[in-house]
Amino acid sequence: MLIPANMTQMTMALIDPVTTPEHCADKRDIAARFSAAAAQYDALAGIQHAIADAALFRLGEMAGKSVLDIGCGTGRNTAKLANYCDEVTGMDLAPGMVSQAQSTYPTITFLQGDAEQVPLQSGCVECVFSSMALQWCGTPRQAISEVFRVLAPGGRAELAIMVAGSFPELKSAADKAGIQLALNTLTCATQWLAAVCESDWAGISHDLVSYSDSFDNITSLLKSINGVGAGSQTENRTRARLTKGKLQALAAAFPESTSGLFNNTYHILHLSLEKPL
């Protein structure tokens, strides 16, 4: 049903220390990094856009519906939803993203908020959309519970979440070269599905889809991640730049591809959920 694409740009940081569990992630730091990336985000976020477009295709036209876009970023997807929905609200953790979105799309409502504590009343929207945002949540159960809470009876959610197993080429190269990279630990798909099953959904469907990203060199791959604000610093992590020698070692250890490019793969859990009437 979904056709993954070979596109460009996203995830991992030009820093070199210890991986920290996702629940330790500092949301203030995440918000600050994505705020700083707001102005250049759309130009760099090719693969994020591809994943979002796939999620929008799965959602279909929700004509006449009220929609909440969680993790709206610069508002690109919110604006697409506004083309065929009566009421659309974009929400993002990063104030810089909210400011960028509001400036670009002044007729759409945007607000700052946390996906685990959505600042809206229960049952207030008929649809929740979210792409490449919920993986930053500390507790899948709480994030899914909030989606369920804000949906009106009979409402629908379409979620695209990056999950564990992503970046196998990058991780393999780092292990082979003996380099520790600062990658946030991602929740596995089974944990997200378990969280979904804790709420009383009337309908649940899901797909785990791999999207491939390609780069001419290892530096471009790594810089693209920082360029969209995704290289979030977490607690108990000391910041240290990768040296030229380490970059060369990482590139040399990278799995060979038939195209000669540096590939990076993202595993995305697409969730389609329906709340009972």
From TrEMBL:
One of its GO terms (biological process) is methylation. InterPro entries: Methyltransf_11, Methyltransf_Superfamily, SAM-dependent_MTases_sf. Transmembrane segments: none annotated. The keyword Transferase applies. Keywords: Methyltransferase, Transferase. Residues 68-156 form the Methyltransferase type domain. It holds the Pfam family Methyltransf_11. GO terms for molecular function: S-adenosylmethionine-dependent methyltransferase activity. It comes from the Bacteria. This is Malonyl-CoA O-methyltransferase. It comes from Marisediminitalea aggregata.
